[in-house]
Specification:
CATH architecture of the largest domain: Alpha-Beta Complex
Number of domains: 2
Number of helices: 10
Helix content: 40-55%
CATH superfamily of the largest domain: 2-enoyl-CoA Hydratase, Chain A, domain 1
Low-confidence stretches: none
Mean pLDDT: 94
Largest sheet: 7 strands, mixed
Order of helices and strands: EEEHEHEEHEEHHEHEHHHH
CATH topology of the largest domain: 2-enoyl-CoA Hydratase, Chain A, domain 1
Structural class: alpha/beta
Radius of gyration: 19 Å
Length: 263
């Protein structure tokens, strides 16, 4: 296990788990924390043995957003400094979104503000029954950041996104699931096992096909049907030329489970 000071990074069987580690502040984000997360994401993107990323928080909280009371808060300093700091939040959100591998947010406790943005920026969101989610920005006289203005309308529609952003109400896990912000809600005691199972299935899957599938789906919002069909054809050609599809076909003929290797 690696420790950066603000987070733990563990690796096991292709699964990288990044755990925010400021439980005394409900894992509120600092500038150093963002820099550490950016470094971890860059490292993960380079390592072919890393096949799935799990993002979570220590101490019964996912992330309470930016640490507005800290000395390196976007709320402190001149406007130009704030712009630079908030842009850094955006850079990290974009790096998370662009990771080639599947990502899972394991959410326990609060996921609010930029913490919500990081959770929704993952491909899958699994929450405990005690999870609480909110945009919260308006309650601090702020507007959304960390990609939330782009993510929310795509997940829940424009009208509901405006309601969530205008009022910043706290949502319980079941409501968040019903709205489409969360994929699964499980008892607290089952959260680790549920995410471990999902991550293991993804880590054992065909990494190229999963990466291409992720990109196809992410690009769907800005792609025409003609372009999507062409992108599908190009992706399928890459799959057919690679070792994973050959292994899948051999396994099918041999009536066994395929054994994929990192690519």
């Amino acid at each position: 296990m690696d420790q950066t000071g603000t987070m733990f990074v563990t690796r096991r069987d292709g699964v990288v788990t990044v755990t925010f580690n400021r439980p005394h502040r409900k894992n509120a984000l600092t500038a150093r924390m963002l820099d550490d997360l950016g470094s971890v994401l860059s490292d993960v993107e380079r390592r072919t043995e890393d096949r799935v990323l799990v993002l979570t928080g220590a101490g019964g909280a996912f992330c309470s957003g930016a640490d507005l009371a800290g000395p390196d808060s976007p709320a402190s300093g001149p406007a130009g400094s704030a712009l630079t700091r908030v842009r850094r939040v955006g850079e990290i959100a974009l790096a998370l979104h662009r990771l080639r591998m599947p990502t899972i947010a394991k959410v326990d406790g609060v996921a609010v503000g930029a913490g919500l943005g990081l959770a929704l920026g993952c491909d899958l969101v699994v929450a405990s029954e005690r999870a609480c989610l909110s945009t919260i920005f308006v309650r601090r006289a702020l507007s959304p950041d960390s990609g939330i203005s782009w993510l929310l309308p795509r997940l829940v529609g424009v009208a509901r996104a405006k309601e969530l952003a205008f009022f910043g109400d706290m949502l319980d896990a079941a409501t968040a699931r019903d709205l489409g912000l969360v994929g699964r809600v499980v008892p607290v005691e089952d959260l680790d096992a549920t995410v471990d199972e999902l991550a293991a299935r993804l880590a054992g899957g065909p990494s190229l096909a999963l990466s291409l599938t992720k990109k196809l789906l992410d690009d769907a919002w800005t792609s025409s049907l003609d372009a999507a069909l062409e992108h599908e054809a190009q992706a399928q050609a890459l799959n057919l030329a690679g070792p994973d599809t050959a292994e899948a076909l051999r396994a099918f003929l041999d009536k066994r489970e395929p054994r994929f290797r990192p690519t």
